[in-house]
Amino acid sequence: MSERLEKIIPQLLTKIDFKEGMRNFKKKYYEDFFKEYRNRTEEVNKEIVAMYDSADKDEEMQSAALALISYAKSEYDKAGMFKKSTKLMDMQCMMVFYVLPSLLSNGHPDDDRIFADTVTGQWRAAFPKSQISAAPYEDIYNGFRTTIFGFNIENIFQKN
Q1: What's residue 147's pLDDT?
Q2: For the chain: N or C, fewer Cβ within 10 A?
Q3: pLDDT at position 151, please?
Q4: Where are the alpha helices (DSSP H) in the chain?
């Protein structure tokens, strides 16, 4: 793996604040915010795509995933004893809602899926009680509901 990718891959988690991510995790805002997140991490995603052309692609994917998960693990370890579960939940949400869908959106479906699965596998090894999986952006976006019992809920939950 390039030293550059190893250095910048944690940006997939650092370029998004948990509160900001959750505030925008509504159908009305998710599409625009996901695009903004992709723009924030464009440099990282370009390096990931360049990694796909490497002769040692599988080994580099493992190393890149390890660098990302090592960052997450260090953030978890730095959290206070009573804040570890909250920190893990925050990072887990950002991984599932933004990081993994972004990894699956690099325009190389096979390699994107292999890398996302590599990341989730290493995540599960580092955090055994956190069983995340990768879903494409489209699946997440299409999973938002706009009505409950026939009532439009988009206007009920306004962004503050």
Answers
A1: 62
A2: C
A3: 61
A4: 3-8, 11-14, 18-23, 27-40, 42-52, 57-78, 84-94, 100-103, 109-126, 137-142
Residue in this structure with the two tokens 């991490």, named with its chain if needed: 41
Instruction: Indicate the domain borders of the chain.
Output: 3-152
Low-confidence ranges of the chain (pLDDT < 70): 1, 146-160
Question: Pairing state of beta strands 147-148 and 151-152?
Answer: antiparallel
Burial class (CB in 10 A: 0-12, 13-18, 19+), 112: buried
Reported as a single tens digit per residue, the pLDDT across 50-71 is 999 999 999 999 999 999 999 9
Half-sphere exposure of 81 (CA within 13 A, CB side): 0
Cβ atoms of 69 and 126 closer than 8 Å = yes
Place of tokens 């991510």: 21
